[in-house]
Amino acid sequence: MVSPTRALKIRRTPSSVIKPGELVDIVELKKLTMNDRRIYNMLIDNAWDTITEDRIHEISKQELGHSKHKSYDRIGESIERLMGAMAKVRINQNGEKAFLRVQLLGPNTEQTRKDGVISYTFSKQLRDIIHDSQIFARLQREVMYQLSSKYSLVLYEMIQKRGNQRFIREQAFEVDELRDILVQPGKLTSWINFRNKALDPAVREVSAMSDFHVSYDVRKQGRKITHVILKWRRKDERAADAAQRELDQPRVGRQARIEGRTEEVVDTADHHIPPLSSGIYERAKELFPRYDVYAVETAWRSWATKKSEPVHNPEGAFLNFFKRYAKENPVGSDRGASIHELRSPQSGKSS
């Protein structure tokens, strides 16, 4: 049996940050901002090679200045919130699931000049967690800095933590459990508010800008939604290239592009098709429940890019393609279409 790789054995790179898995699915007992979490990731990254040692780590304010706030006073405010934040970290204790309540950041000092240094520490309890961690998230710096909300950043970390598991592509969370991780206990308590203000926007943005297609289903007890089944699937080369193109574009208009509210300017070289909205995926699942929606999407994109004319209405084109595909490729009641079984429709237009 192959023993799990310890997170500390994973080397960081200039383009990525390593974060122990136990520090991803935390429940914030005191609210942190998106910028606080970014700064915390950078503090972990900066200390990584000696993070389990009882020592003082140093980082310059300029190095932490990647945040959208140019004022160095804001960095100090983030450090103070991190020092005052108590998190509930999920751990295993003698084979039993448990919560450890731990301070995210220990005592620290900050030089007052703008180009000064911040010296900081981690508590022994936190160092022990990191020392024993066997799960990690590799966070791409470019994605981490460009996500527009804390909800998206938290979801991105959750997906990156889980995405490298070879045979697991989904996980069920109780609604309250997922809300506590994405938002904070006691916030957005109704399902509608949680879904509309936090979950759906985060799923759309992370799916558009990361290495994974992200979606979810719900589980009900009567009329009450009790669980969210979070799903992820690594993108193929074409979809990954589309995500990189979105990262390369200006932030202005990004939300509209992600939600499909604007017409995409088509690159005539490859007829770039923007990411579909989560709503169109849900609609496709309703219309074609026996099919692998994402596999059909891959086939549609491959087919559409070979056409001589651009796709002006991607979501309508995708559903039209799906209708013809389902008619020409019927599936049995006990199985869905896989990517290896797909054949593109032989006739009709999709745009």
What does this structure look like?
There is one protein chain. The protein has 351 residues and is an alpha+beta fold. Among the domains are: 1-140, Arc Repressor Mutant, subunit A (Orthogonal Bundle), CATH 1.10.10; 267-341, no CATH class. It is 39% helix and 19% strand. The strands form four sheets. The protein has a three-stranded antiparallel sheet with strand order 2-4-5. Helix 11 (293-304) crosses helix 12 (314-328). It starts with 15 loop residues before the first strand and ends in a 23-residue tail after the last helix.
What series of H and E elements makes up the topology? EEHEHEEEEHEHHEHHEEHHHHH
Low-confidence segments, ≥5 residues, pLDDT <50? Answer: 262-271, 333-344, 347-351
The spatial strand order of the largest sheet comes to 2-4-5
Query: What percentage of residues falls in helices of 4 or more residues?
Result: 25-40%
Distance between the termini: 52 Å
Strand content: 15-25%
Shape: globular
Give the rounded overall mean pLDDT.
Answer: 83
Please give the radius of gyration in angstroms: 22 Å
| Main sheet record | 3 strands, antiparallel
DSSP helix count?
Answer: 12
CATH architecture of the domain at 1-140: Orthogonal Bundle
Structural key phrases:
disordered C terminus; 3-stranded antiparallel β-sheet; Arc Repressor Mutant, subunit A; 12 helices; 351 residues; globular; single chain; alpha+beta
